[in-house]
Design a protein that fits this description.
Elements: E1 2-6, H1 10-21, E2 25-29, H2 33-42, E3 44-47, E4 53-55, E5 58-60, E6 69-74, H3 81-88, E7 92-100, H4 106-114, E8 119-124, E9 127-132, E10 135-140, E11 144-148, H5 155-165, E12 172-173, H6 177-194, H7 201-206, H8 211-227, H9 249-264, H10 272-279, H11 286-299, H12 305-318, H13 326-340
Parallel strand pairs: 1-2, 1-6, 2-5, 3-10, 6-7, 7-8, 11-12
Antiparallel strand pairs: 3-4, 8-11, 9-10
């Protein structure tokens, strides 16, 4: 396939390198000029416990890109979706479509901008990090799922599935891509909570003192999903049934243990949220993820006090007003305990 991958970071760089390795015609676009230059000069390097290889690749900044593509994979952070769509649309052919390979519910925004029929959804949960210009760390495999927004099984979906199998031979298609995306929103809320601390994902989720907080947080998100008539899907230890209002504590705790076990096997110990805060010192996707969920909850007359507190704390960390520590999670626990009285 001939592909344009918009965003050559952790997600786009990893899958794009595998697509090139499999013989596909891939062009990368990225805002980071040093990353683009390194890819063009030395190739794109994938390293880590899964694989170690370098592929020759073409990369451009948006200002230097010319041409049009039928298949475009959008792999930017969620809060960059709208600006990226404005830049990439001229490079989309008349019969072209965009695959959102991102975290969040960005498919809804993309569909509003170019139409549902030109938008394909995907869900990815593999672990990868941008290390330096031209180098991506691929730390752990995870679920890879593709689906049309309307649930139909189409020829282009089959083509994309074949493409993604060259990255991960366990990739699947689904008629319920929104279920996977909302499942990731619930799991993602837990990751935001872990990123308030210096602990790894596994260690934070395993902390007995905050087990009830993580369970309540997952329930906050899935109550909103239910209000939107979404049936969430499970993956990599995350069992959505364990975060429903009627779930037993034993079921909820079992899912947490399975998520801990999954993350303990990955060389990616901390979330991308944590890396944005602690390593790259930049704005996270919190507004595009947590902020969006809070807005959707308000539309359904639902409250998300834990999510709201986490968003507030993330903002304070981004602004340099707060450090990463267990004390932050303790503040979220206080909100939870107050709600139980």
């Amino acid at each position: 396939m001939r592909l344009l991958i918009w965003g050559a970071g952790a997600i786009g760089g990893t899958i794009g390198a595998y697509f090139i390795k499999a013989g596909h015609d891939v062009t990368f676009v990225d805002l980071a000029a040093d990353h683009v230059a390194a890819i063009n000069e030395k190739g794109l390097r994938i390293e880590g416990p899964i694989d170690n290889f370098t592929v020759e690749a073409r990369a451009f900044t948006p200002a230097d890109l010319t041409g049009q593509w039928e298949t475009l994979l959008l792999c930017t952070k969620g809060h960059h979706t709208e600006s990226a769509m404005g830049l990439l649309e001229p490079h989309l052919s008349d019969n072209g479509y965009v695959v959102s390979v991102q975290n969040g519910l960005n498919e809804a925004l993309i569909a509003r901008l170019i139409g549902e029929e030109r938008t394909v959804g995907s869900f990815v949960n593999f672990g990868a990090d941008y290390l330096q210009p031209g180098v991506i760390h691929y730390g752990g495999r995870g679920a890879v799922v593709l689906g049309e927004l309307n649930g139909h099984m189409t020829e282009r979906l089959n083509d994309l599935h074949s493409l993604f199998l060259s990255f991960d031979d366990r990739a699947i298609t689904t008629q319920n891509i929104w279920g996977y995306l909302w499942g990731k929103m619930a799991y993602g809320a837990l990751l935001y909570a872990t990123a308030l601390t210096d602990a790894s994902i596994a260690d934070a989720l395993a902390a007995e003192s905050y087990r009830d907080v993580f369970i309540a947080l997952g329930k906050e998100v899935l109550v909103v999903a239910a209000a939107k008539s979404v049936k969430p899907e499970g993956f990599n230890g995350f069992n959505p049934l364990a975060f429903m209002p009627e779930a037993s504590p034993a079921m909820s705790q079992a899912s947490l243990r399975e998520m801990v076990a999954f993350n303990q096997k990955s060389a990616k110990t901390h979330s991308g949220i944590y890396r944005d805060l602690a390593v790259r010192k930049r704005k996270t996707e919190a507004d595009a993820h947590l902020g969006m969920m809070i807005a959707l909850a308000k539309e359904a007359d639902l409250d998300m006090p834990l999510t709201e507190k986490i968003l507030e704390l993330i903002h304070e960390i981004e602004e340099g007003k707060r450090s990463l520590s267990w004390e932050n999670l303790e503040l979220v626990k206080t909100i939870h305990e107050a709600g139980k009285v």
